[in-house]
Amino acid sequence: MHSYEPHDEGAAAEIVRAAAATSERLRLVGGGTKSGIGRPAQDEATLSGASLTGITLYEPAEMVVAARAGTPLAEVQAMLAARGQMLPFEPMDHRPLMGTTGEPTFGAVAAANNSGPRRINAGAARDSLIGVRFVNGRGEAIKSGGRVMKNVTGLDLVKLMAGSWGTLGLLTEVTFKVLPVQERVATLVFADLDDARAIAALSAALGSPFELTGAAHLPGGIEGAGPRTLMRIEGFSESIDYRLEELRRLLKRFGQPEIVEGEAGTVLWARIRDAVAFAEPRDSAIWRISTAPTRGPAVTAAIGARRDARWFYDWGGGLIWLATDASGDAGAEIIRTAVRAEGGHATLVRAPDAVRAAVPVFEPLSEPLMRITTGIKAAHDPKGLFNPGRMYAGI
């Protein structure tokens, strides 16, 4: 199998034009940390963006950063941290869950729309992504967006590339808005709530004016602990003191919370962000379910009544991480039936190749949506060169 690793956008475009001439199918890769997500590869060569590196723009006053797609995410984050800034959406590190090595790249954050616990407050990666450069399936270098947020008429290529998993083009550069790091972070931890009461507590807090930046529930048995319901707030120290007291008063019917700050809180939310509790056993299947926050307990109850599974909630109940046995269809029929009944979608994040080849990994699309998706793919990658079949069979 051929392996291409261009050092600039022009070389990448030449490689794609040559591949288009021979219809050589290309697997697009960055750091390889998410290589097991999606349907098994149906390609003939790899095209890596790992050598497209370097921070190309940083304007702290404008709160904008741009870097080539292969730039290590940690390099960008370290530079931002040195100036008291951060990516708003808290991107997940997939390595613990996927058992991968390598280095997460800046472009992959956009390609996977990689968003962690702070999404409830700051939005997804897509919402902070304001500019992209990419090479399409014709070998053309395309630039869309720039240094400021703005509305445009027509197809929004910036948002379209976010979450496209390398199926529409090779990202060569991405631009994100950033935010200041907050002075103080505190987490309220309520003990021993069942799923329904925990989500009720989270919903009450999220509906308050006290601005949570994290809202998760870990049922009993997750990492060997009892049930824990977590609410994170950030800001100036005086504001934190006031909001802690108000949240205690608002939520007193759910008990008295422990307050966690400092490194312990940082580690706690990193483990939730990265779904570390489900890293082992390595042979279990991992699902990522999105639904309306208040419907989360109904979804898991329906699944748990028919299949042995473990789960925890993020995004106030709107994101469910679920681990189950990978045998058969890895629970796909049961899980998707439960999700359809309540509304939402389910993605099979981790499973053996044979399961991912037989079971739709991403939520199956309705016929109208599949027609639109197929048309978008054909417009950007007419010969189907990029990551063929990774998201949906045949496209």
From TrEMBL:
The keyword Cell cycle does not apply. Coiled coil: none annotated. InterPro entries: FAD-bd_PCMH (IPR016166), FAD-bd_PCMH-like_sf (IPR036318), FAD-bd_PCMH_sub2 (IPR016169), FAD-linked_Oxase-like_C (IPR016164), Oxid_FAD_bind_N (IPR006094). It comes from the Bacteria. Pfam families: FAD_binding_4 (PF01565). Residues 1-181 form the FAD-binding PCMH-type domain. Keywords: FAD, Flavoprotein. This is Glycolate oxidase FAD binding subunit.
